[in-house]
Amino acid sequence: MEPNLAVEIAGLRLKNPIMSASGCFGYGDEAADFIDLAQLGAVVTKSITPLPRTGHPPPKVAETAAGMLNAIGLSNIGLDAFIDIKLPYLRGCNCVTIVNIAGRTVGEYVHLARKLSEQTGVHALEVNISCPNVEIGGLEFGASEEGTARVISEVRKVSKVPIIAKLSPNVTDIVAIAQAAEAAGADAVSLINTLIGTAIDAKSMRFKLSNKFGGLSGPAIKPVALAMVYKAARVLRIPVIGIGGISSGEDVIEFMLAGAAAVQIGTACFAEPTIFGRVLEEIRTYLRQRDIDDIGTIIGKVGDA
Amino acid sequence: MKHSGEAVIVRKTIVSEKIFSIELDCPEIAEKAGPGQFVQVKIPGIQTVLWPRPFSIHDAYEGRIVLFIKKYGRITESLASLPLPQKLFVTGPLGNGFRLSSGLKEIFLVAGGVGLPPLHFLCKKLLADGTRPSAVHFYSGAKSKAELFAHEAITDLGVNYHAATEDGSAGFKGLVTQLLEPDLRGKSGLCICACGPPAMMKAVADLAAGAGHHCLLSLEQLMPCGWGVCNGCAIKIKKTGSEPTEDERGFRLARVCKEGPVFESGMIEWNQI
User: Fold this and answer.
1) 0.80 surpassed by pTM
2) Which of A189, A293, B107, B128 is the most buried (most CB within 10 A)?
C-alpha cells in the first residue's frame, strides 16, 4: 500500500509535507517550465511588499562551501502586481498557495495581510519577520519577543487565513521567539531563515556582496536548522515547518523526526527545479521499506543516540 | 516542459590546453534550443559546490547538444578530466537568445575567445532559415591560434570568416574589434551580435552606438538557478520610466538568466561589468 503523505498544518490539509521555500521559487510560474505545481504540498511565494522593490545592487550572491550567501533585498513586483498578475496564475494551478509577506512597519504587515487574505486562492500567509537583508523591517521585528508579538498579533487580527511566522536563527533564543509568536496567535512557525554571514575575496581585497552581509543557506546550515526545529517543536503546541539545507528524502525524514510537521526546500531547487518529485519518491521508498503507512506517525519521534 | 535531469556525455574533444568541447545526448534540450540560449550543468556527486555552471549552446543536432568550455576553476577542470561515459545533470534550454527582426540584409557576428558558441549556433540557424540575410560576416578573436576554434565549421557554412589573434599566430594580429572597426566604416543600420570578454563587448557596443547600428550582446554571469527564481544573476540596466518603488534606486535590474543572456547593448550599464 502507498504510504500516506498527507499532513495538516494550521488547519490546511496538504497532500504531502513538501513546500517550496520563500525566495527560492519566485511566484511559482517560472517553475511551471519544469514541474506541475500541484505536485507540491504547498507553494510558498517570495516575499511580497506593499510597493515593488528593486533590491540590492549586484553582486547579490556568493558561493560558499556547501552553501551560498544571498543579499537580494526583497526584490519583488509589489502587492498590486502580485494580485493582478501572479495570483490568477497560481489559482489556476490547483496548488495550496502560501503568500509570504514583508513589511517595514506593523502597519504595512497589516495592510498586506488584510488585502491578501481576502483574495481567493491565498490559503495562508507566511509572515517574514526574519529577512536579514533589509535595513527597515524584517529582522528588526523577528529579533525580539516583543517585536514578534507586535507583528503577529496585529496580523492575526486582520487575516482571514492561517498565519505562519517565519523565524530567524540570528537570535539568542529562537524558542522564546517561537513561543512569543504562538502566544500572539500564529497558527504555525517556519524555521529557519538564513544565517547572517559574509564572504571576502582575498584576491581583490573586497567584500563579495554589495550589501557586505548576506544570508547563508544550503546544506551548510542543516545541522543548525535541525537543532532549532527540535528545540522549538518540543515546547510549541502549534506545528513547526522545518527549513534549512534540505535536498533529499532522508533530509525531510530527519526534520520530521526532529519534530517538523512539514518542510520547505529552498536552495536545493535552484540547481534542480525537479527536486520535489525526486524527494517525494525517496520519502515513499523510505516509508515503504520500514512499513510505515503514515508519515505523520514519525513526527518528533527521534530517539537518543 | 524544459529538461532538468541527467544527460550523458557522448563525446569529448580537446581543442587546446585550456579549451575542450563536450557533446551531450539530450533530445529534450536539442529539439527546443535556440541560438543564444544556454544550459546549466552540474557534476553529480559534488556536494560542496551548489551552483550549476552555465554554458551557451554551440550546436544542437540529432538529439545532441554541443558545449565549448574553457578551464577556469575547479568545476571546469573537473569537467575536463571526467572519464567517459559520464552523466551530468543538465537543465535547459534557458534564457532569451538572439531575437532578430526578419529581412536583415547584412549581419556581423563577433566572437571573443570562448564566447563563440552562441554566435556559431546563431550563424547556423540564420543560414538554415528561409529568410537568410544577404551577407553574414563572422569575426572570431582569440589570444592565439591554439585558442581559435570551430573555424572550419563556420567557413563550411559559407560565411565571410575573419580571424584575429592577439599574438598574430593566425589571421589579423590584434584585437578582433580592431579587425572589425574598418569594415563597419561608412555603413549604417547594420545588425551586430557579439559575445566575449566584457572589454571586447564594450568596444563592440561603442562601435555600434557611434554609427547607430543595432547591437545585441550575450552576457555571462554566475547563476545559482538559471531559471529566474533566485535573482542572484541580476545586473543593472538603464532605468526607463518611473514606476514608484519602495526602495528608490537609480537603476533597474534584469536577470541575465531570464531577461537575458542576450541584451540590447544600449540597455547595459557598463560601469558594473
Assistant:
1) yes
2) A189
Q: Which residues of chain A have pLDDT under 70?
A: 135
Give dist(CA A206, CA A157) in Å, integer: 46
Is A185's Cβ below 8 Å from some Cβ in B? no
In chain B, residues with a C-beta closer than 8 Å to the C-beta of A61 are 222, 224, 230, 232-233
Which CATH fold would you assign to the domain A7-55+74-194+217-298?
TIM Barrel (3.20.20)
Quick one: average pLDDT of B16-41? 96
Question: In A, which residues are within 8 Å of B42 by CB distance?
Answer: 271-272
* Domain range summary for chain A, segments of one domain joined by +: 7-55+74-194+217-298
Q: What is the mean pLDDT of residues B114-132?
A: 90
Give the alpha-carbon dihedral of B109, B114, B117, B120, to 10 degrees. Answer: 40
Average pLDDT, chain B: 93
For residues B257 and B243, what is the distance between their CA atoms, to the nearest angstrom? 23
* Per-residue model confidence (pLDDT) at position B119: 97
Supply the pLDDT for residue B105.
84
Residue type, A203: K
Q: Does the N-terminal peptide bond of residue A52 adopt cis geometry, omega within 30 degrees of 0?
A: no
**Between residues 194 and 233 of chain A, which touch chain B (CB distance below 8 Å)?**
218-219
- Top residue of B48, B50, B236, B240 to mutate, by most chain A CBs within 10 Å, is B50
- Smallest Cβ–Cβ distance between A60 and the set B226, B231, B247 belongs to B231
Please give the C-alpha separations between residue B101 and each of B93, B96, B131, B132, B190, in angstroms, as whole numbers: 21, 15, 10, 11, 12
User: CA-to-CA distance for B254 and B262, rounded, in angstroms?
Assistant: 11
C-alpha cell at A76: 519583488
Q: Which residues of A are catalytic, by number?
A: 131
Mutate one of A25, A36, A60, A246 to test the B interface: name it (highest B CB count within 10 A): A60
pLDDT in tens, A60-102: 999 999 999 999 999 999 999 999 999 999 999 999 999 999 9
Residue B189 has a pLDDT of 87
Give me the pLDDT at residue A242, please.
98
pLDDT at B76 over 90: yes
